[in-house]
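User: Here's a chain of 436 residues. Predict its fold as tokens.
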Amino acid sequence: MTTQLTLARAGTTTPAMETVAHKERRSPEFIRARVAAGRIVIPANPAHAALDPIGIGAELGVKINANIGNSALSSDIGCELRKLEAAVKYGADTVMDLSTGEQVEAIRRSILAHSTVPVGTVPIYEALCRIDDPMELTLDLLLEVIQRQAEQGVDYMTIHAGLLREHLPAALRRTLGIVSRGGAILAAWMQKHQRQNPFYEHFDRVLDILRAHDVTISLGDGLRPGCLADASDAAQFAELDVLGELVRRCRAAGVQAMVEGPGHIPLHEIQMNMERQARVCDGAPFYILGPVVTDCAPGYDHITSGIGAALGAMHGAAMLCYVTPKEHLGLPNARDVRDGVLAYKIAAHAADIAKGLPGARDRDDAISRARAAFDWEQQFELALDPDKARELRAEAIREQGRPAAEAEAGDRPHYCTMCGPKFCSMRVCADLKAGT
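Assistant: Prediction complete.
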């Protein structure tokens, strides 16, 4: 089967490329050329009927992913669909189904049926759900799961093919060792069987399946640092070098590829990490988790990671994997999904402005004009989270002792609830402009 990559190389501009060009305010030829070069990926499995395609690349608007999925301890199909709805409503560009509990296949099938955004998975999770002992994992089972998920319509898959046996000594000297679930289980499997990573050893067979269904590969970072003490170490960069090799093999096979990245990284090392990935992986889109920039704020990691995400995106990351307030604490619910998505939508938008992308600041300029005109409804409509803005405005009015109905009936006083009429700088300035 042809893929977006092979078609782009042949000079064909696909309908998906046309859609991406329109969304990004770029020419179709710009998109086609970057897809052909591997600098943009369009995760678009033809079997995902409800999909509205997007492009992921450093020269495009920064995308955000929301992880959903159940665990062996909690959640069901209904709960996961509510998470999906919240994620898409508040701005997630993709979702990943990371289910590891009961009904894994049914949950994924339901998410694919309802999702208009690309859906990603980590196939090793489902493979592990099918066996009692992780050490019984086999290549045949892994390939069977990848095949089945591709047939169902999964748009991109995380494959931890860059973690090799020779990386384990350095990884096990770390403070937190290997924090990737897939990476840790593969490491234990390699140690027990004294064999190489099956994903790496049989990478061409994985690519054959992905190419047949135009599934984008997300080259997983099984050795991403899980704390600042492990950031930018020998294990992380040894795996990155292998990922660079795998990017070249993906492109040669006609499979779209992006690369996953850290993790927990202090602020002053983020730019270096982004630039090193771009160099090693020849500009393949970089998909980063956070990075979390401090380890001591559980409950607020959507903020600690959002800070790192904005900086990472400004320096070239193409997609940000959100972190919720529940990171390190538990499985997120729909409220946590909303909080995580909004934190990352802010980070991505700030980076788009810093990169000077076409139209990136239009929304900010429009909301500024609405503030100057005391047009509260227009401010709400332009907000990244209109519901939250309305909720806080109504709360402030109630706390002033004014009727709550005023907040719901076109309330438009020429001052904000913080300053009041006497101290409102914008009201004073408006009077100055009017000469009154």
